[in-house]
Specification:
Layout lengths: L1 E3 L1 H4 L10 H9 L5 E3 L15 H9 L7 E5 L9 H18 L4 E5 L9 H16 L4 E2 L20 H17 L8
Parallel strand pairs: 1-2, 1-3, 3-4, 4-5
Length: 184
């Protein structure tokens, strides 16, 4: 399962089944369930009116425990203090652990297709600290370069090719942490 924002749920011409999350699941032979919506974050409820915690509660928590939950985001938590983002990330991970104590959790930091602003690095650091405290692998894409054809004309979201590159990176990052076809 993956909780995330527009990068996870799809945006513009990229459909949900074409996102990096779907590509990653295909590559690793996983059954994918996604939650979240464009504009959402740990603190930012976006247009749908719910944060990642709300997406977890409404879309995932009632389901059987997955082998792995990936929480991916922070991009939309601009204008929020990093401490507040970290606190919200901690509450989310605690809720996941309370509901599914045996589920492995991996946390992906904010994804930027272009150079990230300073505040995004601060959010990344806050989320990384929470992941470390929960002993969850933290996968950091913030300073990666994806290439010009990886960016939609909106200047924010990945193209279909950008999602493929994100998926390749995520598969490799997961494998570095011992997470692959057999999650356990």
């Amino acid at each position: 399962m993956v909780i995330g924002d527009s990068f996870t749920a799809g945006s513009g011409p990229v459909e949900p089944w074409e996102t990096y999350a779907a590509e990653t699941a295909r590559e690793l032979g996983w059954q994918l369930v996604t939650a979240g919506a464009p504009g959402t974050g740990y603190v930012n409820p976006g247009r749908v009116g719910r944060t990642f915690l709300g997406s977890f509660a409404l879309e995932l928590s009632w389901r059987p425990a997955p082998d792995l939950l990936i929480v991916s985001g922070g991009h939309n938590d601009r204008g929020v203090s990093p401490g507040r983002v970290g606190q919200a990330a901690g509450v989310l991970l605690e809720a996941v652990r309370a509901r599914w104590p045996d589920t492995r959790i991996a946390v992906v930091g904010p994804i930027w297709m272009t150079p990230a602003p300073p505040w995004a690095h601060e959010v990344r650091n806050a989320v990384a600290a929470v992941a470390a405290g929960e002993r969850a692998p933290f996968l950091d894409p913030i300073d990666r370069r994806w290439g010009g054809d990886a960016l939609l004309p909106d200047g924010v979201h990945p193209t279909r090719e950008g999602h493929v590159r994100l998926a390749r990176w995520l598969v490799a990052a997961l494998r570095e942490h011992g997470i692959g076809r057999d999650v356990r």
